[in-house]
Write a structure and sequence with these properties.
alpha+beta, 10-stranded mixed beta sheet, two-stranded antiparallel sheet, 14 strands, 17% strand
Length: 431
């Protein structure tokens, strides 16, 4: 459990998650942060300058967004005297921002913090190779025509081959596996099949579609506008016509030709932002705020980078042990859908006596997780997974599900590229 003062969730908001379309989207990461943050701050009974700090998670801000947390803070009117900073823990950067804020509040360093995550994956850079950069350096140092001629002779067609920054970022630099390949390994370990992955993916889209139709995201998703006046009001990754038959036609992406992971059962490349306001009891009393939830506990774990998708198992289980809870003692679960096989692998690991004994040090399997208490309104496969933002989104949405169903506890957890897992236990104040 978090030691020190209680940490309350006051409010939260996110942008629609916008599916990348093969070109830079209408918003940079900082634009998304401001678009979600301004309406959230404007509806509060305090001024933006009353914040003690702003913490923003982001994996790959552009060169114009150095310390993107500070840039967003200033653009939202939080004031020059409000410190703001940026954190990065790959897919869990948004959750890391929340955990950092909660730690500061619990220790008495801050009382009112805006924390969250943002990412504009469509703006991931296209780079030059190291060899071409070296050639450019030589060219700029050339003074005479003879020097320039010698430099031109060294120029090769291969120098113009671009380096796709997004692909580099989604490949582990230590083990060399792409994130999809780590899921292939998990699928092989637990004997998962293609149909179960595709079926999980179809369910994700069906659940998102139903949630949109029922207005469940009202109050969570803020309508945003680009500079051309175009309006964005809902997640754009939804495929209402998704079906087992259509997904079965897709070819494997990461392990050809016999692999199981396809574009259809993987998270989508997406742009988006999510923020939460956290406060101490002191700030709640000062500004007349109501606590909607409590951050009860959090945990970080390291795992084999080639099986990074199992991170949620290793991060969530210690929280359950500390609170003497079983899987079904938690009313609701948000497991970020990096890949269908990755989520199914986590469920299989908890249900495996061998895995729980050998990897978690338990005497027996932890059990089965009720699918009707997991990702009720879709996840990364349908909503999208803007890597810096997802950790904050799943915490925000878990709280809203608790409020809607009058449940008490929720666990938000996700795998992290590089071989880690993160988890956060949220409860309603009455829980």
């Amino acid at each position: 459990m978090h030691k020190g003062r209680p940490v309350y969730i006051i409010d939260g908001a996110r942008t629609p998650f916008l599916k990348a379309t093969g070109k830079p989207g209408p918003f940079r990461a900082v634009d998304l942060a401001v678009a979600a943050g301004l309406p959230l701050l404007n509806r509060q009974p305090f001024a933006a300058t009353d914040l003690d700090e702003v913490i923003l998670g982001c994996v790959a801000p552009t060169a114009e967004e150095a310390n993107i947390g500070r840039v967003a803070s200033l653009r939202m009117g939080c004031g020059e005297s409000t410190p703001a900073w940026t954190v990065a823990r790959n897919c869990a950067s948004g959750m890391q921002a929340l955990d950092s804020a909660a730690t500061h509040i619990a220790l008495g360093r801050s009382d009112l913090v805006l924390a969250g995550g943002t990412e504009s994956m469509s703006h991931a850079p296209v780079l030059f190779s190291t060899e071409f950069v070296a050639w450019l350096g030589s060219w700029t140092r050339s003074r005479s025509m003879a020097d320039k001629a010698r430099s031109l002779k060294m120029l090769k067609p291969s120098h113009f081959k671009p380096v796709i920054g997004l692909l580099q970022g989604l490949t582990d630099p230590v083990c060399g596996f792409s994130m999809g390949q780590t899921t292939e390994k998990i699928a092989h370990r637990f004997g998962l099949d293609r149909e179960s992955m595709d079926r999980f993916s179809v369910r994700s889209h069906e659940r998102l579609g139903a949630a949109i139709d029922n207005g469940f995201f009202n109050g969570e998703v803020e309508t945003i506008f680009d500079i051309r006046g175009h309006r964005y009001f809902e997640d754009t990754g939804l495929r209402r016509d998704s079906s087992i038959e259509k997904l079965a036609k897709l070819r494997p992406v990461f392990d050809r030709p016999t692999g199981l992971v396809t574009a259809g059962n993987s998270a989508q490349i997406t742009d988006g932002c999510a923020w939460l306001l956290l406060a101490s009891e002191k700030a709640m009393g000062k500004f007349g705020l109501q606590g909607r939830g409590l951050i009860a506990d959090s945990q970080w774990a390291g795992v084999d980078p080639t099986q990074m998708g199992l991170g949620p198992v290793h991060a969530s289980t210690p929280i359950l042990q500390r609170a003497a809870l079983g899987l079904d003692d938690v009313d609701y679960w948000e497991i970020n859908e990096a890949f269908a096989g990755q989520v199914l692998g986590c469920l299989a690991a908890w249900g495996s006596r061998e895995y729980c004994r050998d990897e978690l040090g338990l005497e027996d399997a932890l059990g089965e997780l009720d699918p009707d208490r997991l990702n009720l309104h879709g996840g990364g496969i349908s909503i999208g997974h803007p890597v810096g933002a997802s950790g904050a989104r799943i915490v925000l949405h878990a709280l809203r599900v608790l409020e809607h169903h009058q449940w008490n506890r929720a666990m938000a957890t996700l795998c992290i590229g590089g071989g880690q897992g993160g988890a956060m236990l949220v409860q309603r104040p009455s829980g």
